[in-house]
Amino acid sequence: MTRGRRWILRVLALLALLGAGTYLFVWRPVADAAAFLARLNGPALDAAAFAAAGARTWPAVEGGDGTASVPRCLVFDGPDATAPLLLVIAGVTPEGIDDARVAQLALACRAAGFGVVSPELVRLARPGEGPDPTAAVLQALAAAHVSGAGRWDASRCGILGVSLGGGVALRAALEASRASPPHPVAAVLLVGAPDDARVLATDWFRLSIARDKSDRTVAAHSEAGIFARHAVLRAALPALVPASEVAPLRLWIDTVGENSSGPAPSPVGVGSPEAAHWVAVMRAEADARSEDVAWALAAAEPSLALTSPAAWGDELSRLDPRTSVYLLHGQTDPLVPVTEMGKLASRLSGHGPVDALESRLIAHVSLESPGPEETWRHLRFLTRFFDAVRTSR
């Protein structure tokens, strides 16, 4: 063999060794996180495509008192019976687990190698209605333990909570280890979660409506303000108007949706002064008077407190110290400022491991494209969360 040929073979062998090393020590450890981000950022899928990917639905189970003992859930089986389990808790969305974005997130978790259960939380889908959502999450977790044989390994479990669902996820993790029987949660990932939604709600009422939507940042804050104000006012309804007028006003605000309520036709079937006051605050949007904002926020406070760790007093001291908490928050989040992550991290300090990442990859919950360095930071961060769930017992 000629000297030149031996040199070429050595170079090829070295390249092969480097390639194998890169795969084993660099890429393979983050491959599941890469699959998660790729699926999350992939093309939107319709219901048929999700069904083909293995999505199914657990129907709600009624208890003896006629209330749900297990909520309706979106479910993806794990790739095999040894796959760990992730509970996915969406934020406020009227479609609940029927929202394609929730299914996309659940499928992304499945692509990362997990079994997935995403419970329908009435209080987040329809603010002001339904019981404390924490109970529904615990019911779903208990059902996942009972029904998990052959689908996933529920003894290794994590929870992923998005936006206002983050507080619900954290409280569920807090309560899970004290349930009967206990179902400890190894790790919780909170994306865009507030420390105190009660304080933020005042700011949401001051996010003005953009007339020119050409500026993406201005448009994003405008849309966030409308969405959040309407959710707060919907949650406040039962405490502010006569019981007979709650249903027609809910129907009206649901019809208005995420549009400005100013141009909407007047609601029908209502006539009390309280209802007229509530409608006037709705129509005022960002121009509502301070006293009217305070009136609405006082009524919505119980719902906002459910998703606000700042409102829980010393309850966080009961968090299992073995439960790791991961905080991921967009630098330009238009709904929940990134400063909320720092406050929440400080509040969790001393109660267990906390890992936080300030992100240029996400806004509130939507993905952006900041480049390979930022993507790599997220791959490493997500891998730490996934590994915390996988290695638990």
Number of separate helices: 14
**Helix proportion:** 40-55%
Main sheet characteristics: 8 strands, mixed
Largest sheet, spatial ordering of strands: 1-4-6-5-7-8-9-10
Number of strands: 10
Q: How large, in whole angstroms, is the Cα Rg?
A: 23 Å
Assembly annotation: single chain
Number of domains: 2
Output the helix-strand order: HHHEEEEEHEHHEHEHHHHHEHEH
CATH superfamily of the largest domain: Alpha/Beta hydrolase fold, catalytic domain
Shape: globular
Uncertain residue ranges: 8-26
What is the residue-mean pLDDT, rounded to a whole number? 88
Describe what this molecule looks like in 3D.
The chain has an 8-stranded mixed sheet with strand order 1-4-6-5-7-8-9-10, sandwiched between helices. A two-stranded antiparallel sheet has the order 2-3. The model is unreliable at 8-26 (pLDDT under 50). The termini are far apart. Strand 9 (324-330), helix 13 and strand 10 (354-359) form a beta-alpha-beta unit. The chain has 2 domains: 30-196 and 321-390, Alpha/Beta hydrolase fold, catalytic domain (Rossmann fold, 3-Layer(aba) Sandwich), CATH 3.40.50.1820; 198-306, no CATH class. The protein is an alpha/beta fold. The chain has 14 helices and 10 strands.
Structural topology:
Elements: H1 3-27, H2 31-40, H3 47-52, E1 56-58, E2 61-62, E3 68-70, E4 73-76, E5 84-89, H4 100-111, E6 115-119, H5 122-125, H6 133-147, E7 153-162, H7 165-176, E8 187-191, H8 197-204, H9 216-240, H10 243-256, H11 273-284, H12 290-306, E9 324-330, H13 339-348, E10 354-359, H14 372-390
Parallel strand pairs: 5-6, 5-7, 7-8, 8-9, 9-10
Antiparallel strand pairs: 1-4, 2-3, 4-6
Helix pairs in contact: 2-4, 2-14, 6-7, 8-12, 9-10, 9-11, 9-12
